[in-house]
């Protein structure tokens, strides 16, 4: 589960800001148009946390916003994204949304089935890896960081179309 700081920080969830922008318009119109024309799949349209870590979705949004918004609007959109993701429990302001206590769990847990370290979908499908990371979270983190780590991990996997909630449990 690796994250591109540019993609995640700026637009991995520009779309999620749009959800709130419908109620509190802080997202520039150009960015709202980009959101309306970009699919968050496999994330559900109302799953803000998933959208916050969906790199493909974020890359498409970033491309659109960079092409269609002024620099001022880009900065305004970026701030709206950061705040919206925080509200959804995903802090992308530092690039990696996992709390510090969980980052080594994700980075250092080895998979016996995933050869490509950048194939996050493979890691999400590897039940043994998911369970090992979850165990590491539980031994390395305390609440609220433990809950954040689990929430971010589940959202990351939903962004690859994989539901790991039955694997990690409560």
What does this structure look like?
This protein has helices at residues 5-11, 14-21, 29-36, 48-52, 55-68, 71-87, 100-108, 120-125, 127-140, 145-158, 165-168. The protein has 170 residues and is an all-alpha fold. It folds into 2 domains: 5-87, no CATH class; 100-168, no CATH class. The longest helix has 17 residues, at 71-87. The protein is elongated, with a radius of gyration of 16 Å. The model is unreliable at 2-13 and 20-24 (pLDDT under 50). GO terms for molecular function: metal ion binding. Belongs to the RBT5 family. Residues 1-17 form the signal peptide. InterPro entries: CFEM_domain, Extracellular_membr_CFEM_dom.
Q: Can you give me a brief rundown of this structure?
A:
By secondary structure, the protein is mostly helical.
Distance between the termini: 21 Å
Helix content estimate: 55-70%
Average per-residue pLDDT, rounded, comes to: 86
Order of helices and strands: HHHHHHHHHHH
Assembly state of the chains shown? single chain
Low-confidence stretches: 2-13, 20-24
- Report the principal-axis shape: elongated
Q: Please state the CA-atom Rg, rounded to the nearest Å.
A: 16 Å
Family: Belongs to the RBT5 family.
Protein name: CFEM domain-containing protein
Main location: membrane
Membrane topology: Lipid-anchor; GPI-anchor
Helix/strand layout:
Layout (H helix, E strand, L loop, with lengths): L4 H7 L2 H8 L7 H8 L11 H5 L2 H14 L2 H17 L12 H9 L11 H6 L1 H14 L4 H14 L6 H4 L2
Helix pairs in contact: 1-5, 2-3, 2-6, 3-5, 7-9
